[in-house]
Amino acid sequence: MKEAVKKFIADNYDNYVRDLAVLTNIDSGNGDREGTEAANKFVAAKMEEIGAECELRYNDRACHCISRLKGEGKVTVLLVAHVDTVFKKGEAARRPFTIDEKNFAWGPGVGDDKATVVEVIYGLKALVNAGFKDFKEIIYYTNGEEEGGSPTAEGIVAELSQQADLAIIMDVARPDWGIVTQRKGNAKYKITVKGKGGHHGNASQECANAIHQLAFTITELHKLASPMPGDPADFTPAALKARGIVDAGQFIPENTVNVGVIGSGNDKISVIPGDAYCEVNIRCFKIEEQRRIDEAVKALAGKITVPGTEVTVTGGIVTGPMQKTEKSQKMIDVYKRIVKEEFGGEVSEWVAGGLTDGNRTAKYVPTLDALGIENYDEHTDHESVDLNTVVPRTTAFALTLAELAADF
Q1: pLDDT on residue 237
Q2: At what angle do helices 115-129 and 13-24 cross, to 10 degrees?
Q3: d(Cα 137, Cα 124) in Å, to the nearest integer?
Q4: What does the pLDDT look like over 343-389, one tens digit per residue?
Q5: Contacts of 111 (CB under 8 A, 6+ apart)
Q6: CA-to-CA distance for 142 and 227, rounded, in angstroms?
Q7: Does the pLDDT at position 295 exceed 90?
Q8: Which one, 40, 126, 190, 223, has least CB within 10 Å?
């Protein structure tokens, strides 16, 4: 079977590129229901060709596709990719799919995540062509709202994860056989301070400055963060490369606290503000740290430094981290071995502070992340995907899927 899979993927490279061109040239920006419908109907048609049953689900912003391929084995695998992009309608016409002299493809969303959406189709085609049936079910969910998130998408991921034994997140890959094995979880809070406003000159003794209290509260928030590794200028990609350091996310602090929004209804320097607020994003690699910090943030409501003010904390943990577990390590080890045996490559394990659907599947099942085609500069107008990685990456994905589906 292995040789048949490898041959099919290599022989169908040109077909892969043609399909990638078609999908890239479909505008499917986040929030574009019509565009994500067109993209997911393209996916559904390709999946139905290999015997899958496909279901399209809609909300007012997007179309989602769930493809189900039935087998004869015992293990159910969930595959997750996404068809939406960060680009507005008209972007595909402005800069359509092209290939340069280095065999890099360009276009809106070409790498994030359309090259990988097509990768899954061809990996599954190769397995079906080789007669592989040693799985109970392969569920392929192509999310129409990954870039912005939505209750619809999160609900589908939770639903499908509970039907599966393991999940593989087919999102953008890291360079040189890099995959992501840990991701931070996400928590959001709004801290509101109520004080007593008044004239700074004549009534300050009667007032309670809400902004001053907020400043003290933010100082307490800062204490919850892990220390930064040093001068930010020393940890840019260029600075690390200049020092001969391969960046795999190893310098990302364990726990980060970001006060991203701050404000008050007051806009006059001579008025003592009676209200203030901030919005906070906190990310952690470990669920235990998430919970500890969540308690500490909520306890700030009781820490008053400026007499006469009141502090209210709302919000909490939104998404848990994708932690490495014993079972996910087994998945990692299978992928590493296959890459080594078939291509002589060394897989590097990355950690990431950003979230994917892998954070959500990991709540329910062991998860392997970032098995996509290698791409660069996603979310920009110079995003590209390295087509030289299509055959090896698709082959490694398909062989890993087959081994895990047959024996997990």
Answers
A1: 87
A2: 140
A3: 12
A4: 999 999 999 998 999 999 999 999 999 999 999 999 999 999 999 99
A5: 105, 172, 372, 373, 374, 375, 376, 378, 383, 384, 385
A6: 38
A7: yes
A8: 223
Indicate whether 251 and 351 sit together in one domain.
Answer: no
pTM to 2 decimal places? 0.91
Cα–Cα distance between 357 and 164 in angstroms, integer? Answer: 14
Give CA–CA dist 392/173, Å, rounded.
13
Residue 322 gets which letter from DSSP? B
Count of structural domains within the chain: 2
- Residue 124's pLDDT band (boundaries 50, 70, 90)? very high
Q: Find where tokens 């007593």 sit.
A: 196
Residues 282 and 300 in one domain: yes
Q: Which of 59, 295, 32, 23 is nearest to 155 (CA)?
A: 59
Residue type, 311: V
Q: What is the pLDDT, as a whole number, of residue 357? A: 95
Domain limits at 98? 2-183+322-406
| CA separation, residue 39 to residues 26, 171, 371 (Å) | 6, 16, 21
Q: How far is CA 9 from the centre of its chain?
A: 27
Burial string for 4-21 (b: 16+ CB within 10 Å, else e) reads ebbebbeebeeebbebbb
Q: 44 and 65 in contact (C-beta within 8 Å)?
A: yes
Instruction: Report the distance separating Cα 376 and Cα 115, nearest Å.
Output: 12
**Residue 147 shares a structural domain with residue 222:** no
Residue type, 203: A
Whether residue 213 sits in one domain with residue 166: no
**Average predicted confidence (pLDDT) for the chain:** 97
